[in-house]
Every structure is written in structure tokens, then in C-alpha cells.
Specification:
With 174 residues, the chain is α+β, with helices and mostly antiparallel strands. It is built from five helices and three strands. Strands 1-2-3 form a three-stranded mixed sheet. It is elongated and about 90 Å long. The model is unreliable at 56-63 (pLDDT under 50).
């Protein structure tokens, strides 16, 4: 084993010297020296790292729980499910923020919050919007404008949209 390591390092060193002789002088040679030096360093350190890996890390990785292919597949499926749920949650949150921002563009809308529900394929199944407006704002007109805006933009049906308008108090004293 040690003789094999020494032989590999000697071969790498000879190849490094030969490779450096073939290159022209200048910027390229300095770059080639760095690369070949790193390869030589890798050839030296690789057997040392392998010795540590076999003794300490590999037994933990090859425990009886992960040795079977079903255990590995199950762990992969669990990870896939978790990442999928995380992505759906982030998508739902971002979509709710976009819908709230779009509804907030309607004249008279002050504070808008949105909750979204998704179908299995990721399409919108239901949107619940809570919109605060001033006391002097016509709630029906505001509701109509927001409904029209969201239905057209997200190709929703009226029954998929639940709008809750909350009239606030207009403070005339400042």
C-alpha cells in the first residue's frame, strides 16, 4: 500500500515536470504550476484522507439503517417531500404578497392582506382578501374594482375570490 502511494506520487511529480517543460514561459506557465502543484498535493493528501475516512466517517454512513436500498430511497423520498412542501409554502406566501400588492393599487384600498389556497397542481383554488379602507370610500365600488382586477389578472372565477372590506374611521382632525 505505501509502495503504491510512493509510486503514484513519483509518477505525478514526473508528469508535473514534463508538463512544465512543454509549456512556454510567461503567464500560462505560472498558472500551470499552480494547477499541477494542486494535483500533486491532492495525490499526497488523498491516501491520508482515505485512511481517516475509512476509520471514522464510513462506519457512520454505512450503518445498518442506511445500508439497505429501501432506507436510502425512503430518506430520499422524505427529503423530496419536505423540500416540496417548503417550496409550496414559499410560493403560496409570495403569491399572497403579490395579490395583496395588486389589490392595494385599487383607489381607496389602504391595508390589504391575502390568504391563498392552492390546488394539487399549484393553481389557485381560493383567495381571501381583507381590505381596509377609509370611512368615506364606497365599499361596493372598491370591492367591484378589486374583484375585476384580480379575476382578470389571475383568471379566477368570482366564487374563488372572498373579499372582506373593513371600513376604517377617517380622522378629520389630523
Amino acid at each position: 500500500m505505501i509502495s503504491e502511494i510512493v509510486r503514484n506520487i513519483a509518477i505525478m511529480a514526473l508528469m508535473t515536470v514534463f508538463f512544465e517543460m512543454m509549456l512556454p514561459r510567461g503567464e500560462l506557465q505560472r498558472f500551470a504550476r499552480v494547477v499541477t502543484g494542486l494535483l500533486l498535493l491532492l495525490a499526497i493528501l488523498s491516501p491520508i484522507l482515505n485512511a481517516f475516512t475509512k476509520e471514522k466517517i464510513l462506519p457512520a454512513v454505512t450503518s445498518s439503517e442506511t445500508k439497505s436500498s429501501t432506507g436510502i430511497l425512503q430518506a430520499g423520498e422524505d427529503l423530496k417531500e419536505k423540500l416540496s412542501q417548503d417550496a409550496i409554502g414559499e410560493y403560496q406566501e409570495t403569491l399572497g404578497g403579490q395579490i395583496a400588492a395588486l389589490a392595494g393599487l385599487a383607489p381607496g384600498a389602504e391595508d390589504v392582506t391575502a390568504q391563498t389556497e392552492l390546488e394539487e397542481d399549484g393553481s389557485l383554488s381560493r383567495v381571501t382578501l381583507t381590505v381596509s379602507c377609509g370611512a368615506k370610500v364606497d365599499q361596493e365600488v372598491l370591492k367591484e374594482k378589486i374583484s375585476e382586477l384580480l379575476i382578470n389578472f389571475y383568471t379566477l372565477k368570482q366564487e374563488q375570490l372572498n373579499l372582506i372590506i373593513i371600513a376604517g374611521k377617517d380622522d378629520e382632525n389630523g
